[in-house]
Amino acid sequence: MPPYSYSIDGGAFQTRTAPFTISNLTSGTHTIEIQDINGCGNLVSVDIAPPLDLIPAVTALPSCNDNDGEITITGSGGTGSYTYSISPNPASISLSTNVFSGVPSGTYTVTITDTVTLCTEDVSIVVPVAVPPTITNTPTAVTCFGDTSGSFEILV
């Protein structure tokens, strides 16, 4: 019979009018005791699940041209339903599923958002400037006129 008093984890009883919500609880098992005006009550345990971690896995690939690097981000944990965003976001960048393409070299922040819980995780990513291969060649002259003994060695 109302009003009801409740105690969380053995704490002091507080009076509330039903229905009510008990909020600001941490994850874990909580013991809740509820008593009516006559002192009749019930004791229940409630498990509050911990937040699911969002774990981003990132691959950043530079390229020889300035605006065609690639960032692949894969989320795990959470509910499994994610959206991705990138900052800064120059016009050259496009997103398909979980791959950003057309990425110039530079430093970016990629945000993964769990679409169910709205939890987010930011990852700082550097797309390095691609370094073209260095080529050194050493020619060897033809020994005699009309001969095919010439050659060159290439070191990369």
Layout of helices and strands, plus pairs?
Layout lengths: L3 E5 L5 E3 L11 E8 L5 E8 L5 E8 L7 E9 L4 E6 L6 E3 L2 E5 L2 E9 L5 E8 L8 E5 L10 E5 L1
Antiparallel strand pairs: 1-2, 1-3, 3-4, 5-6, 6-9, 7-10, 8-9, 10-11, 12-13
Describe the protein.
By secondary structure, the chain is an all-beta fold. It has 2 domains: 4-48, no CATH class; 51-156, Immunoglobulin-like, CATH 2.60.40. The protein has no helices and 13 strands. The chain has strands at residues 4-8, 14-16, 28-35, 41-48, 54-61, 69-77, 82-87, 94-96, 99-103, 106-114, 120-127, 136-140, 151-155. The strands form 4 sheets. A 4-stranded antiparallel beta sheet has the order 2-1-3-4, with no helix packed on it. A 4-stranded antiparallel beta sheet has the order 5-6-9-8, with no helix packed on it. A hairpin with a 7-residue loop joins β5 and β6 (69-77). The protein is rod-shaped, with a radius of gyration of 32 Å. It starts with a strand and ends with a strand. The mean pLDDT is 85.
In short:
By secondary structure, the chain is mainly beta. The chain is 0% helix and 53% strand.
Categorize the overall geometry: rod-shaped
Look up the CATH topology of the largest domain: Immunoglobulin-like
* Main beta-sheet strand count, sense and barrel state: 4 strands, antiparallel
Give the helix proportion (percent range): under 10%
SSE series? EEEEEEEEEEEEE
